[in-house]
């Protein structure tokens, strides 16, 4: 049986500041090496100052994935030398003195399969290496430390996936969940990265590192299964190794680096005390969490009688469910749900289009009213919606400007 396990790194892109200093978590807007300070540059004599919001948001992710949340958490130093790591160690978490990571074991249902979560840890992102130059001989490496210290949540699963399709379903659910919690924007470049381990029946476990997006993760897993099956069919031993994902050629390649846990000389981060998160704080965070996708879906079905499939689409996309919930759902909930999931979807199918859209929930209320009262036809409503998204004008104005009113004169 094929076994796949994932380690997903997710940046908390919605936070204001980095994990241990006041620099911006949103490093993407800055010119190289301008979003830095002595703390994230690891200058001698500086001390980390833990971002409380990062603890809160990471705890919410743990709760949403049904993980246990320990009362006492600790941070560790993971020592390694690499140009993108100014301190020469990364502050991360490790369960060596009991469960002291931000989230303990949990689980999530994917289709009809239970995927176990091993743990969730909070850590800092390193900087970025940028390779420039035309040939491998003339290549230079630039270092941008703007990203160094950005809050990162690592989600580790048990090897419970059996095929790439389950991996993709899991990633879709996870990405909706993170968006719904308003902790991360998975569409941002580099916001989601992953490692995967893959083994087929009778073979050794292969670890794939450095997968830069959810889209590539599924491809990498698919490639690796095919590669291992082809070796197996020719009776060639599948040696245990680490492979890197080459995102240009879309293949995995053998990598010489073979660090084991011991090589990192983990030890307790002495500059950050153990953090006690009392029960009351966990309860407060739980009460502040946004309504879950499954509970939204149930509400849409039971309260408004919206069909299962429509409720699925509506609840799993925060953009749609926010629009729906803010419109006047007491009167025409079904009609509004219908407009969103049939006509609106095609008009706002990219992030850019969503940002440019002038549509507000009150427009949806007006449109549903106009359709229900027979003032305009569904086809006219569709045309009006196009104009609203583009201009943000009121429905009344669009009806008169474009003469969309329904004429019920027989002649
Ligand atoms: Zn800084």
What would you say this structure looks like, in words?
The chain is α+β, with helices and mostly antiparallel strands. The chain has two domains: 3-285, no CATH class; 291-402, no CATH class. 36% of the residues lie in helices and 20% in strands. The chain is built from twelve helices and 15 strands. Strand 12 (241-246) and strand 13 form a beta hairpin. Helix 5 (293-304) runs antiparallel to helix 6 (308-316) and helix 8 crosses helix 11. It is globular, with a radius of gyration of 25 Å. The model has no long low-confidence stretch (mean pLDDT 93). Zinc ion binds at residues 18, 21, 23, 36-37, 39-40, 149.
- Percent helix, as a range, is 25-40%
Alpha carbon gap, first and last residue: 70 Å
What class would the helix/strand composition place it in? alpha+beta
The Rg value, from CA coordinates, equals 25 Å
- Domain count: 2
Q: Low-confidence parts, pLDDT < 50 over ≥5 residues? A: none
Attached small molecules: zinc ion
Q: So what's the overall shape?
A: globular
